[in-house]
Amino acid sequence: MPLYKFGETDKFFNVIKTYPQTEFVVYDGRIFLNNQSEMSGALAASVPNVPAGHLNLYEMNVDRLEQTTGRSIVEDIPDKGVIYPFVTKQGSTTAFKTISTSQYSSDFSYGDILSSSYPLSSSIERELFIENSTRRKVSALKNTLNHYTPLSSHYQYSSSKVGLEWNKGTQALNLISIPSIFYGSEIKKGSVKLQFHISGTLIGELQDKYRNGELIQVSGTNYSQTNGSGSVGGVVLYNEGFIVLTGSWNLAPDTRDYIDDTSNKKAPSWLYYGVGANDGSPSSIIPSSSYSLSFKGTQEVPALTMMAHANKGELNHSNNPTYIQYEQESLITNPVTGAIQFQENELTIKNMVSSSFADPTGSFQKETYISQVAIYDKDRNLIGVAKLATPVKKTEERDLTFKLKVDF
């Protein structure tokens, strides 16, 4: 088997930028991701072993249950029936991030086993901040919001301009947090869409139609068309994965229980968008309201392109048994042997050259058919095989180049 080394001009490194679509639907205190319903497993209640609307990081412990097996992984490390991380307290002070330095020193002795658990899951989270409430998370975003003010004045943390007075440090505010695992490096501008439904009827929709972070109400019921249509209901932080909703206008005339207080029902507005999205609200409230959030993320996929060349006069011999003429098995198995010699019989190569006539073949030429290209590392370890859907004929007068592409 011939081996060839890739030249400097035979390898190309680039990055493919993709924009995968993600959609969340929140209804009755439950979250659904990309229209996937919860699937029950043979052992666990959920196949990914996380609630619906969540991602299972690393996809650990899919359809597994934690249970005592009586066995040990290694000495003093029990087998719990599931995969879990653990470390032993040693002089290197290696521990999990959830264990503080003081706790590590006082609560554990040398030789103790420190363990955590899988799966790790992630989903969106909604937080409502009423007027003049404590809001450390919003305060932490103050500099970030002000940084994007050149894109839109609505990013500004506080404003005293006539007709545009607000203070995100004190006003009622709805914060949607999106983990980066769902959008990658950033949320694609112009792809964010929020919809507010009541009993299946769309009462309001926000879009970042101008790609400057402003979430503008673009549609809804007749009632909402006269209440907030064209207004800015909030802003989106594309790089940080936060949506700040401040639109307090009524989207529908009737009131509902959005804050788990039947004596203080509220008219639907963007402040109450996403109720039930990991915000601690009981699933029994607002059963007729649903919310959808869709956006496109940005994923950069490294790609390696390699050019494998089959030059003229090369790669025209094969060790495949079909390369030689049929019915020569006796010549292969019965070489000429003697006291002072060992001679293999000369085998006839099958003539594959086509002819205009039915019976005879054309003048003999060495031909092979390339069906796959193997890739080896510098130590000649096989690291990949590129297979062709249809073998390609290689003649001695033909140059061929195979374009191989690997995504990481």
How are the secondary structure elements laid out?
Layout: E1 11-18, E2 21-27, E3 30-33, E4 55-57, E5 72-74, E6 77-78, E7 86-88, H1 101-107, E8 113-115, E9 120-122, E10 125-129, H2 136-140, H3 142-147, E11 158-161, E12 164-167, E13 173-177, E14 193-198, E15 201-207, E16 214-219, H4 222-225, E17 232-237, E18 242-245, E19 289-296, E20 299-310, H5 329-333, E21 336-337, E22 342-343, E23 367-376, E24 382-395, E25 400-407
Antiparallel strand pairs: 1-20, 2-3, 2-19, 4-9, 5-6, 7-8, 10-13, 11-12, 13-18, 14-15, 14-19, 15-16, 16-17, 17-18, 20-25, 21-22, 23-24
Structural write-up:
The chain has 408 residues and is mainly beta. Among the domains are: 122-297, no CATH class; 302-407, no CATH class. Helix content is 7%, strand content 34%. It is built from five helices and 25 strands. Strands 3-2-19-14-15-16-17-18-13-10 form a ten-stranded antiparallel beta sheet. Strand 11 and strand 12 form a beta hairpin. The protein is elongated. The relative contact order is 0.14.
